[in-house]
Amino acid sequence: MAPRLPTAVAFADIRVSLHKYSLKRPRIFDFVGCANYQQILQSEEFWSALWIMLAFTALAVALVVLLGLVIALVLNHDFRGATSCAR
Questions:
Q1: Hey, which of 20, 39, 40, 47 would disulfide with 30, CB 3.0 to 4.6 Å?
Q2: Alpha carbon of 50 to those of 38, 42, 60, 74: distances in Å?
Q3: Please, are residues 17 and 36 in contact by the beta-carbon 8 Å criterion?
């Protein structure tokens, strides 16, 4: 039963994304097709947010990889007490 839940949620999300829905008027659920996607793709705010998110993600991944590499290189050197815990 558990594997079906993410699939059901995904289909529900797709269904809602193809309709015009307002939390102020939840009974109105008009089908608009791909108009929501066209509106988002034509929005300058969407493209600005996308580039900021991509830059932030790339920077975060690079910093984490670099920090992990530095920690691994530091721990790879011999230091006092390193062999007493390993055996």
A1: 20
A2: 16, 13, 15, 36
A3: yes
- Cβ(18)–Cβ(33) below 8 Å: yes
What does DSSP assign to residue 31?
E
Q: What is the pLDDT of residues 22-71, one digit of tens each?
A: 889 888 889 999 999 999 999 999 999 999 999 999 999 999 999 999 99
Q: Two tokens at 78?
A: 């011999």
DSSP code for 13: H
Q: How many helices (H) and strands (E) does the chain have?
A: 4, 2
Q: What's the token pair of residue 34?
A: 């791909």
Distance CA 45, CA 20 (A): 20
Structural element, H or E, at residue 9 = helix 4-17
